[in-house]
């Protein structure tokens, strides 16, 4: 998420979304806006934030808030998860067109950053280490 947030949450620009494991709002506001669109398997949070912004509400970043969120990942589940993120993003842009908004917007700078970020040693090492630990844990259980 670091690369996504660093691209979409640039200083001076309107915040566009938060992952649902990183946002909080009142139950009333959540339900009043219709909650998550259940036709989404992934990107439901991006679609919800998009509707939130369309209603004129703001997103606010609170850096002092700490959230711990973890997925049990193997190499296979890591690839499946990211494949599904791509499918969800495509579905998100379809839903924007259905609501009369612009559809898929190709942003080469974002994809360039996403690819190059993937090769940073810290990111790659952390993912590999997590996969190895999870695989080891699974084999000893």
Task: Tell me about this structure.
This protein is mainly α. 56% of the residues lie in helices and 0% in strands. The protein is built from six helices and no strands. The longest helix has 24 residues, at 75-98. It is globular and about 50 Å long. The two termini are 30 Å apart.
Task: Provide the descriptors you would attach to this structure in a database record.
56% helix, 6 helices, mainly alpha, 141 residues
The radius of gyration computed from the alpha-carbon positions, rounded to a whole number of angstroms, is 17 Å
Q: What value does the average pLDDT take?
A: 82
Query: Tally of extended strands?
Result: 0
Order of helices and strands: HHHHHH
How many individual helices? 6
Brief account:
The chain has 141 residues and is mostly helical.
Give the topology.
Elements: H1 2-8, H2 27-32, H3 44-54, H4 75-98, H5 108-118, H6 121-140
């Amino acid at each position: 998420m670091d690369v996504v947030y660093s691209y979409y949450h640039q200083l001076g620009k309107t915040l566009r979304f938060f992952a649902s494991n990183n946002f909080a709002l009142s139950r009333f506001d959540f339900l009043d806006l219709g909650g998550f669109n259940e036709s989404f398997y992934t990107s439901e949070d991006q679609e919800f934030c998009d509707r939130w912004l369309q209603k004129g509400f703001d997103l606010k970043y609170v850096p002092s808030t700490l959230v711990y969120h973890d997925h049990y990942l193997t190499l296979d589940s890591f690839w499946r998860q990211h494949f599904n993120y791509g499918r969800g993003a495509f579905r998100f842009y379809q839903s924007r067109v259905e609501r009369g908004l612009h559809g898929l917007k190709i942003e080469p700078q974002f994809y360039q950053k996403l690819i190059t970020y993937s090769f940073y040693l810290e990111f790659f090492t952390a993912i590999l280490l997590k996969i190895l630990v999870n695989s080891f844990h699974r084999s000893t259980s």
